[in-house]
Amino acid sequence: MWLQTWRFINVVVKRSIISLSIAPLPDGATLARFADVTDRFRIEAALRERNDALEASDKLKSEFVKRMSYELRTPLNSIMGFAEMLKAGTAGPLNERQMDYADAVVTSSNALRDLVNDVLDLSEIEAGAMQLEFERVDLYLFLFGMAERAREWATKIGLTLDLDCEADGGQFVADGRRLRQVVFNLISNAFKYTPRGGTVTLGGSIHDEDVRIFVDDTGPGVSPEIMPLAFERFSAMGGAGARAGAGLGLALVHRFIELHNGWVELESHAGQGTRVTCHLPRSLGRKNLPPPPPDRQARA
């Protein structure tokens, strides 16, 4: 039985790359085959260079955003500190108009601080440096605490906040601190787009290994063209005359839930409100959740 063995050699000839294939024949002769593979090598080289350039650009961008965010904190802390001192009357009593100005400075500074923190969190996640600190979480107590903190805020802006969770909802394993950020961002987003007199519902349940935490609102809903981009960073959902934010809240929700091996579902219908549901595994390390819908980030 004759076994044919090929040897492949690439040779550069006058800026062209020739592939030389050599194989012995049964009669003792040698078969040589030549092929011009210049175009293939050039395409592969171009793709490698482009990929390297994209990786370097993304790394540089993330590092720049992270560094700038840290640099913003120092002057921001000074602004917030002096504004709080003015409100407290440290530099003397303020009249009504001056107190309003001081309140506006503090409010805007807090909003900017939250934005800077969100940018830092996203940068840390994208750099793969964020580590979760898991603990056992009681679903009802967790959601009850979040609802109590947000209820006064809802009353001030003319909204009703309801809690939909059984007292014996059960326990699961998660990073409580990051999960609080998730729920706060969902509630904040619902408050922003729900008109006065509306209702926002915070709820949750556990089905086998699937932990579901949701925020439902009676706002105007999300338009179909925006839904696929809802969880992208710097892509804010506008609508109903509401002022769109920086577009980091839902992006952070998406990233934090993914770090928990979960996924996020967005359901919305025009004029019928929006529901965002976070699916997490009940046990640490479990990944056998029910599969997400075909478009797991948005489902109308």
3D structure, described in words:
There is one protein chain. With 300 residues, the protein is an alpha+beta fold. It contains five helices and ten strands. The chain has helices at residues 38-87, 96-126, 139-156, 176-193, 249-259, and strands at 7-13, 16-24, 30-36, 135-138, 160-164, 171-174, 199-207, 210-217, 263-268, 274-281. A hairpin with a 2-residue loop joins strand 7 and strand 8 (210-217). The protein is elongated, with a radius of gyration of 28 Å. The N and C termini lie far apart (64 Å).
Beta-strand portion reads 15-25%
Strand arrangement across the biggest beta sheet: 5-7-8-10-9
Principal-axes shape call: elongated
What are the low-pLDDT stretches, counting only 5+ consecutive residues below 50?
239-246, 295-300
Q: Mean pLDDT, nearest integer?
A: 79
The termini sit apart by: 64 Å
| Count of alpha and pi helical runs | 5
Main sheet overview: 5 strands, mixed
Helix/strand order, N-terminal first? EEEHHEHEEHEEHEE
Could you tell me the radius of gyration in angstroms? 28 Å
Q: Supply the helix-strand structural class.
A: alpha+beta
Quaternary structure of the protein: single chain
